[in-house]
Amino acid sequence: MKFGKVEQPELIDFTIPKDHPETSVLLSKNKKDQQTNFYVGCAKWNRQDLKNFYPRGTKDELVYYSSQFNCIELNATFYRIFPAEQYQKWYDKTPDGFKFFPKMTNEVSHLRRLNDKVYEIADRYLEVTSLLKDKLGTIFLQMHNNFGPKNWDRVVQFVEYWPKEFPLAIEFRHTDWFNDEKVAQELYYLLQENNIANVLVDTAGRRDLMHMRLTNNEAFIRYVGANHASDYPRLDDWITRLSKWETLGLSNIHFFVHQNLELESPLLSAYFIEKLNKKFGSNLTIPNTLVQNKPNTLF
């Protein structure tokens, strides 16, 4: 993932900002009578992107990937709507409890930019995506960098149209959604009232996206490692923050690991999952990163 990439990550202050004041208010309203759901995964499962992850002789990458992770941020669906039979194949290849968090097609987000032509496309997307059934996690809508608050009416119309039986998370990238206090408050209220997750992106060059404002009982976090030694302490800091949120009432933690150069995302994921299990007492599988006797270290 090149978004937010910088040439000298050692110059970036990666400190996680303080929570937005309304985050604790929101979480305190949740009834903490259910077990916390943890889903941690990568963005893709293909061999080219996950270097040195698959054992020699692996015949089906998704089958192996889903034996190591409990979810995937499914970026493939951003580029096209697949035939119905493809979703059924994905469903059949993965074990019980596995979740797909598919990205909404770019026809909706980037090409038509939530105009009045997107609704038929969204319906077609949902028709086939729903074939993932109980393995369908939150659908992820990522808006273009230049999609700013002047498009507010389009956002409202789309949010009101969206079928509420499908969990949705939205990532806004234009900085004016966050640096204009009035705009930000209106956006957060809209998402909160419609039970839509407000995506957090932790990447070096766009610290403004760390708004720390949750809008429902879901932390949907896209973590982008900088291929730098700082990647690990950053993950430690997320464990601390997630623990705080869980104590306040958060029940759904969805954490997706990227890198500027997708070399060792499974390695970062394994580190994070091990820390997560120790902190929360969860029992997520720790991915096997010792393929072909490769040293278990990035640096």
Automatic annotation (TrEMBL):
Domain of life of the source: Bacteria
InterPro entries: DUF72, UPF0759_sf
Signal peptide start and end residues: none
Protein name: DUF72 domain-containing protein
Source organism of the structure: Flagellimonas aquimarina
